[in-house]
Amino acid sequence: MPPARTVLAGVCLASLLGTPPAVAAEALIIVQRSPLAGFRHHEGRRVFPDMTVGDRLELVREPDNPYDANAVRVVWRGHMLGYLPQRDNAAVARQLDRGAPLEARVTRVQENRNRSVRLEFEVVVPLPSSDSKPPKAIETADERR
Q1: Which of 12, 44, 137, 143 has the fewest Cβ atoms surrounding its Cβ within 10 A?
Q2: What CA–CA distances, in Å, run from 77 to 68, 74, 113, 142?
Q3: What is the CATH number of the domain that holds 35?
Q4: Residue 19 domain flag
Q5: Distance in Å from the first CA to the final CA of the chain
Q6: Phi, psi of 87, deg, nearest 5
Q7: Cα–Cα dist 145/142, whole Å
Q8: What is each CA distance from 49 to 44, 52, 110, in whole angstroms?
């Protein structure tokens, strides 16, 4: 994963180059992009026809999960869809525990030929506009070293 500064610079440059002056761009840092784990085992299959790219997802920590202390449940409109993949959930779990303002949204919903469904999503940190309060500090990989 590229350093946070590189991602931030890319987001800023893209927003400057691709946005007309009269339209405010959404500034954010992409923390993670991944497929959803366990989609077929929960309510995802039932609600998938109603889901669209861009839909907001709720991230819910499950620190008492008996299988994974870093478990982060993913919910859409009150329906449990699955979890962040276990191999990728530690950093997001840590940030949620610290109160970081993480958001998630659907980036891809695909039904395969064998009728299996794949949902991909991204976790982001929205950057404040110049007239709002800054978010709580986000721990970077450099700070963990």
Answers
A1: 143
A2: 24, 10, 27, 35
A3: 3.30.70.2330
A4: no
A5: 16
A6: -70, -15
A7: 6
A8: 9, 8, 10
* Residue ranges of E strands in the chain: 28-35, 56-61, 72-76, 79-83, 103-111, 117-126
Pair 35, 118: CB distance under 8 Å: yes
Looking up tokens 């469904």 gives 117
Q: Is residue 80 part of a domain?
A: yes
State pTM to two decimals: 0.68
Q: What is the pLDDT of residues 47-57, one digit of tens each?
A: 888 999 999 99
The token pair that represents 145 in the structure block? 């070293």
